[in-house]
Design brief:
The chain is mainly alpha-helical. Helix 3 crosses helix 6 and helix 5 runs antiparallel to helix 6.
């Protein structure tokens, strides 16, 4: 994965973290301190905000990775690999054996990480949103309807993100196993062909030496 893609991926994950952190701050401190949209999107605010979101993306991605590994990933992975080291070896084999297969695998892993990050973000946004609606309810009509719709939408987003992560993870483990077997088979076949040619050349050399001895 190139640097730009990784940066965008972490920004997408960090944006979700920024949302639930902002909702928590608004719930506890109120809304009087918040900057206007004009200030928020000015250059003085925008660049520091992007930097903070990027850092949040790094932190939340690592937290999500550790949590999901402990709760779900290892169980899914064990269907195809004996342990995590076996999985890492197979993945390295794919990356080193086929650039095309490695790129496809990395694209799938990027989507998996974003889904994983947003599964955690959505759950935290759900909690922060309900806390905000309890402590700092906005002065709007149909507040109860807004609360219900928002809570249901966030619950569905949490479920959908986790569902996407799970299916992408299953597909990744299966593909790593299949691609690693393919690359290993290709290398074995190539080695045998080279060995066969070497053996044939050795036989020719032995026969030539025998003829020289007879002469």
């Amino acid at each position: 994965m190139n640097t730009t893609n990784l940066f965008v991926e972490l920004i997408v994950i960090g944006l979700g973290a920024a949302i639930w952190i902002a909702l928590l701050a608004l719930s506890l401190l109120g809304t009087g301190w918040t900057p206007t949209l004009e200030k928020l999107f000015s250059l003085n605010y925008l660049l520091p905000t992007i930097a903070v979101i990027y850092v949040l993306g790094i932190v939340l991605d690592r937290v999500a990775d550790a949590g999901f590994e402990k709760l779900w990933s290892s169980k899914l992975r064990n269907r195809w690999f004996q342990n995590i080291n076996d999985y890492y070896r197979s993945r390295r084999l794919v990356y080193s054996g086929s650039e095309r297969l490695g790129d496809l695998l990395e694209y799938s892993r990027s989507r998996m990480r974003i889904s994983r990050g947003w599964a955690l973000n959505s759950a935290l946004i759900f909690i922060a949103f309900n806390l905000f609606m309890t402590l700092q309810p906005p002065a709007v009509e149909n507040k109860s309807l807004l609360w219900i719709v928002g809570a249901v939408a966030l619950a569905l987003l949490t479920y959908g993100s986790h569902f996407a992560w799970r299916n992408l993870s299953i597909a990744e483990f299966r593909k790593v196993k299949q691609h690693a077997d393919y690359v290993s088979g290709q290398r074995t076949s190539s080695h045998r062909r080279r060995g066969g040619r070497g053996g044939h050349g050795g036989g020719e050399q032995n026969r030539e030496q025998s003829r020289e001895q007879k002469r």
